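Most newcomers find our protein records easier to grasp once they have seen one. Sequence and backbone structure share a record, each on its own labelled line. Nothing more is needed to start thinking about how sequence determines fold. As an example, a complete record with its sequence and its structure tokens follows.
=====
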Amino acid sequence: MNPNGTDDTSPIYKDCMEGGSEGTSKEEISRKIVEQKVLIQKLEASLGRIENKTYGVCVVTGKLIPEERLKAVPHTQHSIEGKNIEQEKSGKVSLKERKSPYINYARTVGFK
């Protein structure tokens, strides 16, 4: 084990730390790793929905999710309407009231 205690850490973490990203903390890297794992789990769940023929159907409304939304957020289980219904129930701000990075991205690549 080296004096920094990094012998057993991921090679990705070592590459990040040795690659000149001194401003990135272990906590930030850990947070990003968790976010990526969550995204992978959501994408794997989407593949399961494709297999069982429920991909693209909103779990709240039962309606088809528009293709534009699926292109912007391929792992979504909610139409905008369904997401707004869920968020209203939980007291969160609806998608209508906030700027979603996925929606903004979709607009930049030509989706409406």
